[in-house]
Specification:
Blueprint: E1 6-10, H1 15-24, E2 30-33, H2 51-66, E3 70-79, E4 85-86, H3 100-110, E5 120-130, E6 136-147, E7 163-165, E8 170-171, H4 177-183, H5 185-197, H6 200-207
Helix pairs in contact: 1-5, 4-5
The structure holds inosine 5'-triphosphate.
Inosine 5'-triphosphate is lined by residues 12-14, 17, 43, 46, 74-77, 90-91, 123, 156-160, 172, 184, 186.
């Protein structure tokens, strides 16, 4: 008898996120597919008012289109001095079409007068698992840091070069993938998913996730 690994789609167009999903989930016996593997080139517009709604929009859309269980995350950076902005709007902060570098420069400019001791920020992440049959499970993670006055480090993506993790004592862009996993919002949300996948409910859900196509 051949053992067939469960195929799960990671619904993100962000290469940095995809790398972190693959790293965190490498211990599970799953075949992790990207959007291109299931012929999807665009995710729906993020019209939700919360991370959870947006993650569900992405995961649900891809699960229905692909007929496969799908994981998606919605995440963002909440800056204390900006009353938790940009938050759920982090990807579009400063305007559409900016590069990561331009977005960071915009943020640093907005808080240029904020002193070191008031530059706290929280990264939040909500991961949603959605199945073609309509099952949904949600996992959350968060982490604290301080915004630096300029970028440091080459790794990661997005705001990583200006987010100095309290736990790591360096920016996420100065951290290795494994270090970032241990201390990051996404690492924590995915750890919650892994823990759930080992519970009786999680095992049962994962075991019954039979690939099914919308048109079948
Ligand atoms: P997908 O929707 O295709 O997954 P995205 O980049 O648009 O990709 P989000 O809508 O969740 O993802 O936006 C989150 C933004 O917050 C992301 O573009 C980054 O700018 C920032 N962000 C989230 N997690 C981050 C992390 O671990 N490191 C640095 N920046 C992060």
């Amino acid at each position: 008898m051949t053992s067939k690994r469960l195929r799960v789609v990671i619904a993100t167009s962000n290469e940095g996120k995809l790398r972190e999903f693959r790293d965190a989930l490498s211990r599970l016996e799953l075949d992790l597919l990207g959007l291109a593997d299931v012929g999807i080139d665009r995710l729906p517009e993020e019209t939700g008012a919360s991370y959870e709604e947006n993650a569900l929009l992405k995961a649900g859309y891809v699960a229905l289109r692909s007929g496969l269980p799908t994981l998606a995350d919605d995440s963002g950076l909440e800056v204390d001095a900006l009353d938790r902005r940009p938050g759920v709007l982090s990807a579009r902060y400063g305007g559409e079409g900016l590069t990561d570098g331009e977005r960071m420069a915009h943020l640093l400019d907005e808080i240029k007068d904020v002193p070191a001791k008031a530059r706290g920020a929280t990264f939040r992440c909500v991961v949603v698992l959605a199945t073609p049959g309509g099952e949904v499970a949600t996992f959350e993670g968060e982490t604290r840091g301080e915004l630096t006055f300029g970028p440091r480090g080459e790794n990661g993506f997005g705001y990583d070069p200006i987010f100095r993790s309290v736990e790591l004592g360096k920016t996420f862009a100065e951290a290795t993938l494994a270090e970032k996993r241990s201390a990051s919002h996404r690492g924590r949300a995915l750890k919650a998913f892994l823990d759930w996948a080992r519970t009786p409910v999680g095992k049962k859900t994962m075991a019954v996730l039979e690939p099914r196509r919308e048109e079948d």
